[in-house]
Specification:
Number of strands: 14
Strand content: 25-35%
Strand order of the largest sheet: 4-7-5-6
Distance between the termini: 28 Å
Oligomer: single chain
Length: about 300
Amino acid sequence: NTGMRKGCVSHVEDVTRAIGEAVSEAERMAGIRVQDVTVNVNGASIGAQMSRGMVSTNSPDRIITRDDIARVEEQATVINMPNNRDIIQIFTKSYRVDGQDNIKDPVGMQGVRLEADILVVTAGLQCIRTLNDAVDAAQLHIAERTVSSVAAAEVVLDRRQKESGTALVDIGAGTTNIAIIEDGEIVSLAVLPIGGQHLTHDLAIGLKADLEIAEKIKTKYASLKPEAAVSKKVSFTDDGVVYEFDTSRIYDIIIPRFEELLEEVDKVFAKAKRSRRLPGGVVFVGGVANTPGLAD
């Protein structure tokens, strides 16, 4: 998270350096040269909206082709949005041919009118530009962009989870990314401006500790299990200095922030009409996901 703030680039040089180091390590491990990259776009400015495109088929025999698919998807991206936003990714939910609904792949079908329902994902233009600057400075080419939660879902969720209806909640340092996937498709995306750094700051203030010490306390002792609420002294040594804290005090500090986060996550579920209606459950990822008791 060097050079990042709330999911967006705050210091281009720091992010460029971090990208270069990560790519060099990946090249060393894979034994290949990396030139093209897929960039994860993050930040609370990310939003998503449904749009519908409609075109007439081109071929004389009215057989739908890949060109028709590309045209209807492009037409669906013509949406009203502020000048300070840009499209980063689209997800086609279904097609419609001459009024016939819920078609997954219309190529080869015959029809006059082709429609597509598409989820259009946008982000703040400034966030996109600074990220582009950092990647360009690292001498890499952006092949495509995606959203952090979608990238995580591709890695973490199996086919059954994607089909049955599952939410992935990626708790990062400055933001929490949410993706709801059902029938193998993205149903909803959202980014909340709450992350692990907020817990660290809460602990630093509540325990009157430096941020570095608060981060270590969070990593070693933060727990949401009931037994963590019981008073118990814990201590650790850092650079020869002994720090001692009470587990119940740590518990009392982090509980309100976790409650806030989970309430906001459930609001996202409710907006998508999926609150307590996810057969595949909720999958937490990210560093904070390791907090004992979170899944409970």
